[in-house]
């Protein structure tokens, strides 16, 4: 009972946290504790469902006398949830996250923490009163687990994007079989080949990662071929098609595609691809035409269920993209910025820029975009109020390829935050105060191809040194593009 009463003080403190605003500044020690939040939260997330499992097992008499185990687990959950809520508040107070989603997660986290503490208190109260409050205890135990799931979903959405936890449910229940084409209307290229290319090939042969210089996101790109100099598909001489040859090689051959470690094409997929190429690689060839060929009829019959699964997956992704476009469109209107689909990519990617004439764009607007950081491939914040500290957030845009920051107040101290962007190819720093010391950080950028440094205080000696150490990167003393 003493342990139960001891939990009422932190419970009251958690309620007070709901009314405290973010701090103006925090010391490095508090910031460090705040960043432990994503690590610590796994304890109550695991422990509270474990208590529920113990109760169920005890109810069906599978587990005898679970009381001691439950008391220990609840105490561990209570202590850990106090640490989680404290760290969560410090992370919230740091200002590194913002927006309505953050506030929803913060409130849900407080409610989850309160639920853990009250559930623990009621459990010990039950022991003291011979089970008098057991119904209340079980009710709070169930509700607390539901709130934890909700808070976890909101936290996942903050980190990974909206609908993170439930995204695949719509793939299971949302897209119906009737949404697919009837077999008589299906095209070999569009409805059979494109889906397995999208699943097994395009991850290495897209606009972001063009292995061997071969692009597979369009029919014309398939025909063209890659660095080998051979056409991907040679309609005149199908047997010479590089694509045909690569998938036909033995699995242990170094040039076999897909390479080792990737999910290979099935025998049915290879048979369909080969027949399509040798038949002229027409985009209008129908599946029913293949069914008329004796050797292909059983292949098509056996493969259609797998094809239906892949097509349902693509339909789901298309639905998700439309949903994402609506969400980003509403956010863009609210923040007075421009967000558009990146038509040069094959995935759910977008570009971000300021409206013309430029309006103010601050760190608060940037933070409001945080749940969607992974979808941006090009960002133009020319003449914005972005500072070097804000580059920390831009450094979390993991798919960013082009970044335009001309005419901002950058001094270069924040360039270190951009070093780990794996795909950043173009960076425009013209008309900024980036200096010699900070610009040397560019040496550590893994994928940088062009950087514009027009009208910056950088010395010619440093420019020369950069060109020597980064021969694969163009160091350009010109204004460069704005978008």
UniProtKB/TrEMBL annotation:
Hydrolase among keywords: no
UniProt feature coiled coil, ranges: 307-341
Keyword Cell membrane in record: no
SUPFAM superfamilies attached to this UniProt entry: RNI-like
Source taxon at top rank: Bacteria
Cytochrome C Planctomycete-type domain: residues covered: 201-261
InterPro entries per UniProt: Cyt_c_Planctomycete-type, LRR_dom_sf
Transmembrane segments: 41-60, 72-93, 105-125, 137-156
Keywords: Coiled coil, Membrane, Transmembrane, Transmembrane helix
Pfam families the record matches: PSCyt1
Protein name: C-type cytochrome domain-containing protein
Lineage: Bacteria, Pseudomonadati, Bacteroidota, Cytophagia, Cytophagales
């Amino acid at each position: 009972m003493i342990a139960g009463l001891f939990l009422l003080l932190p419970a009251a403190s958690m309620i007070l946290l709901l009314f405290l605003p973010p701090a103006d500044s925090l010391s490095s020690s508090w910031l460090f504790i705040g960043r432990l939040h994503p690590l610590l939260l796994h304890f109550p997330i695991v422990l509270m469902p474990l208590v529920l499992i113990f109760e169920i097992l005890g109810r069906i008499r599978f587990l005898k006398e679970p009381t001691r185990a439950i008391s220990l687990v609840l105490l561990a959950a209570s202590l850990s949830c106090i640490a989680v809520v404290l760290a969560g508040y410090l992370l919230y107070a740091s200002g590194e996250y913002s927006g309505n989603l953050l506030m929803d997660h913060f409130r849900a986290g407080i409610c989850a923490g309160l639920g853990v503490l009250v559930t623990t208190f009621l459990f010990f109260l039950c022991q003291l009163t011979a089970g008098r409050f057991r119904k209340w205890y079980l009710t709070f135990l169930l509700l607390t687990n539901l709130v934890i799931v909700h808070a976890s979903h909101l936290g996942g959405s903050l980190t990974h994007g909206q609908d993170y936890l439930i995204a695949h449910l719509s793939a299971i229940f949302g897209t119906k079989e009737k949404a697919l084409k009837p077999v008589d209307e299906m095209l070999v290229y569009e409805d059979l080949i494109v889906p397995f290319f999208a699943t097994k090939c395009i991850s290495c042969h897209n606009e972001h990662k063009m292995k061997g210089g071969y692009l597979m996101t369009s029919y014309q790109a398939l025909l063209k071929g890659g660095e080998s100099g051979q056409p991907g598909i040679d309609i005149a001489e199908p047997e010479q098609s590089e694509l045909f040859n690569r998938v036909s090689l033995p699995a242990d051959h170094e040039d076999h595609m897909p390479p080792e470690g990737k999910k290979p094409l099935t025998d049915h997929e290879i048979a369909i691809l080969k027949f399509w190429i040798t038949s002229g690689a027409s985009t209008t060839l129908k599946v029913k035409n293949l069914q008329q060929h004796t050797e292909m009829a059983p292949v098509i019959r056996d493969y259609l269920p797998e094809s239906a699964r892949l097509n349902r997956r693509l339909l789901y992704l298309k639905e998700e993209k439309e949903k994402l476009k609506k969400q980003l469109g509403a956010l863009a209107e609210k923040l007075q910025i421009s967000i558009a689909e990146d038509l040069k990519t094959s995935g759910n990617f977008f570009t971000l820029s300021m409206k013309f004439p430029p309006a103010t764009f601050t760190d608060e607007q940037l933070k409001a975009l945080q749940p969607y950081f992974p979808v941006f491939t090009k960002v133009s914040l020319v003449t914005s109020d972005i500072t070097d500290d804000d580059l920390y957030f831009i450094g979390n845009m993991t798919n960013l390829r082009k970044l335009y920051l001309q005419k901002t107040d950058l001094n270069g101290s924040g360039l270190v935050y951009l070093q780990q962007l794996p795909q950043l190819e173009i960076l425009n720093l013209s008309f900024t105060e980036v200096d010699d010391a900070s610009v040397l950080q560019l040496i550590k950028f893994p994928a940088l191809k062009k950087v514009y440094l027009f009208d910056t205080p950088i010395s010619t000696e440093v420019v020369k040194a950069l060109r020597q150490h980064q021969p694969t990167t163009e160091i350009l003393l010109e204004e460069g593009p704005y978008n």
